[in-house]
Write a structure and sequence with these properties.
mainly alpha
Length: 91
């Protein structure tokens, strides 16, 4: 809504706030403070690199030994579950 002074544009929302991954998540994302968008990009790069998307339903992600602890021990998750599961590993 351009030009509307009552609708202030947020410069940096919660998605951009730097967070530190725990040791489990850092195996994929690396250590140090990162925004949630950086963490998501690194996870998706890892998933694509390892070819972990289910070939029949691309919305599903197959866990490997590295992702399984991040995904709460689940062998397969929906990409819609990923944000909530990954958030548990950020502080």
């Amino acid at each position: 809504m351009e030009g509307n002074p009552t609708m202030a544009k947020k410069e940096s929302g919660a998605f951009m706030k730097p967070l530190v991954p725990d040791d489990t998540l850092a195996k994929v994302t690396g250590t140090g403070a990162q925004s949630r968008s950086d963490v998501a990009n690194k996870l998706w790069n890892y998933i694509r690199e390892k070819n972990l998307q289910d070939p029949l339903d691309r919305r599903l992600i197959n866990s490997d030994e590295t992702l399984r602890p991040i995904f709460g021990g689940k062998a397969k998750i929906s990409m819609f579950e990923m944000t909530a599961l990954v958030s548990k590993h950020l502080s």
